[in-house]
């Protein structure tokens, strides 16, 4: 019988950039005891986002962070800067990446590839806790 | 018992840019009477897209529109310009944003954050009606 | 009664760029015999991605490929180049597009618009087989 599970994962973003929380997700999914289904993660913020990326090379993460800092830079005279120079670029970087991820579950495992990790992409400078809604449906 | 609901929402895009249709989505979801589930929205076009963004500051929307106009500009001598200079940049901006959104439903509410709105991002100049397929599964 | 189906589609990417595999997806979905549901495709790689795009004009595909080659170019002195100059730009282009697609199924058909095709976006030069996980839930 198909059933569902829902949770809110709180991910600490102590600095801007990519934060791997794959283990948290894998653990929560494992505890639901399903073997086939669909996981959806949803970031409840507009100045942080989600990304599936290469999980082996720290240099790849630094390149990614530098790239988004370059194509959506701070301090360009945005009309919207209520919360400072990192406010509007945060929204732009969120728009360019993902607010949600959906990952099938098969044989009781997420079908992530060998080199794929699940990241919170924090775009603001102030350390903060981010809420990621998790939803699983399956058997 | 898990069940489904499907609908097509028609969103009027009278001008290019971001069009908030959060209320339409929230209303349709509420009418399905579910309390836990997963909503998926799918944009049936390649020159418009979907975005979850900051719903409070009009300046943020203007900055977003200006940003995408800058990184995927009109009139750069694209090979594909069958429908005019706004044809190919529309496809590029759609590729950089989202064709679909998935949002969990919990306690009979979408888990949207306080500042998150659901937007149609229209990339063409001619006013048009856009079809957004909505699918809800849950209890 | 709601049920699920899961499969891995292997898509051959003989060259970098966009590879249309809509027919493969449509065929697999049709064989599951459902009339209402939700399809999710998930790319199990970090140097290839998924995209829904214009399926009629070859020029649009060439423009798209040229655009991503321009905004995330090879040979810019990335810190991460373990696998060559096309390694890091591949991750960037994947981050800018989609790792997963969700498409509702209605009246036994995916709700793809007339001009929408499903593409694997290959970012590496070496010809390779890419694994796309497919998950369908519905009735």
UniProtKB/TrEMBL annotation, chains A, B, C:
State the coiled-coil residue ranges.
none
Q: What is this protein called?
A: YjbQ family protein
Q: Which family does it belong to?
A: Belongs to the UPF0047 family.
Q: Which organism is it from?
A: Alterirhizorhabdus solaris
Give any Pfam family that matches. Answer: YjbQ
Among InterPro entries, the record links this protein to: UPF0047_YjbQ-like, YjbQ-like_sf
Q: NCBIfam families this protein is in?
A: TIGR00149_YjbQ
